[in-house]
Amino acid sequence: MIDFRLKTFIDLCDTKSYTKTAKNLSITQPAVSQHIKYLEEKYNLKLFNYISKKLSLTEEGYDFLCSIQKLQTMSTNIEHHLKDYQSKSKSLVFGATRTIGEFYLTPYLKKYLKLYPNNNISMIVNNTKYLLHSLNKGSIDFAIIEGHFNKSDYNTYPISKENLVVVASPLNKLSYKKSITFEDLCNETLILREKGSGSREIFTMYLYENNYSYRNFNHVIEIGNISVIKELVKDNLGISIMYEKAAKKEIERNELIILDINNMSLSHEFNFIFLKESIFTNDYTNFYNFLMST
Question: Residue 84: pLDDT above 60?
Fold first, then answer.
């Protein structure tokens, strides 16, 4: 277990509020201040600044947070593995982005559970931003993600490279056009995933690199569920951008079609990642090798 004052520091980095941290940890606000003062004096660091009445990390405070998060992750992982040792079974606590969790991992997890029926699996399905945060604070051991991240911060192994496509109802007027321009696309209602999702980040970058923005579209709707998006698109209520793998069944049934947009090609990696310098690197690598050999 890490020192309770370090837990106070980590929580304060999240909340940016002494009052909220005191409430979260069931301690007084002066106690929060004392914990931070203790850490600053012990390590000879200035951890926070007040700018326009807002609390923010200093540069050295951010570096300190990164180190403490690694320590917290290691502490949490050790606790998990000790419990595994006592119960003589293994636990997998990991995250997957929605496309991967809902449309990619199922056959692999089925095979894993058949091979190791006594092992425990806990899979959190959320967007890339949420999973990176969970990984950094030690809530999960590793993550399989589709979005952008800084590879220098993690051990990274490629899973696959997947295509993103524009999907529409077969009844959409664009389905009858032989040549579709991006301007044609902009006349449609665009149904997007929520901010923080990998597929949205990739499309946002494509727009930026081609001097477009979401303001170019006739109408934009934000939905945080892939299945709901597909149902809306099937009913010709808009178009969407998603990984081809996520719409595979609907495309095969001709419930959705892929619109071939002139000069538009999008693809991105699925990656298996975990924090660097983990003492459980071999365990995580073994699961990655299992995925790649299945």
Answer: no
